[in-house]
Amino acid sequence: MKCDQIFGGKVVVLGGDFRQILPVITEGGRVATVLASINSSVLWNSCKVLKLTENLRLRKASNNMDAGALAIFSKWLLDIEDGKINESNSGDVEIEIPDDLLINTSGNPIEAIVKEIYGERFAMRTDPKFFSERAILSPRNDDVDKINQFMLTKLPGEERRYISSDSIETSDTSGHDDMIYTQELLNSIQVSGLPSHVTLTSLK
């Protein structure tokens, strides 16, 4: 072990994609975010950047048509990430989404996306593989709750509601009555990684 070298002279492999989301700095602006990136670290000059050059998804394509479509889609994603789509000096970018990636509907958008991903008779399916190969992603927890609620209404069986514990131990308040939280406040708290106050399931 060489104490005068970074990491004691050991080789450390870091994996990541510089096109992905920047570090999240609480109440930090652009400067704080950039300074938190690894290429602003004192260790950066000691790093050697290696780039992946082979697209394994294209290599696993079942036929030439799939490979061609995947190649076009992959290039389009990389151009977006590299800022090559309709780039301008102002920094504003307008990205046109291809029609085959859009779900055009004038009705309920949640119903439309569920129908597109799972079909109209998903409630009758029992094959776990069918559901493991499909997912609806959303950046907002509110939208996730709405999608889950809609899909639950389509499942057969009796609805079961599970309620979380909504009281606080008075010994934790250290004798200050003004620190006792109301049930309404406790029930309204939604923290990432914890379930909501009310959880719904469907029992056949």
TrEMBL record:
It comes from the Eukaryota. The keyword Ion transport does not apply. It catalyses: ATP + H2O = ADP + phosphate + H(+). The keyword Hydrolase applies. Pfam families: PIF1. Its cofactor is Mg(2+). Keywords: ATP-binding, DNA damage, DNA recombination, DNA repair, Helicase, Hydrolase, Nucleotide-binding. Its EC number is 5.6.2.3. Signal peptide: none annotated. Residues 4-90 form the DNA helicase Pif1-like DEAD-box helicase domain. SUPFAM superfamilies: P-loop containing nucleoside triphosphate hydrolases. Belongs to the helicase family. PANTHER family: ATP-DEPENDENT DNA HELICASE, PTHR10492. This is ATP-dependent DNA helicase. It comes from Camelina sativa (False flax). The gene is LOC104783526.
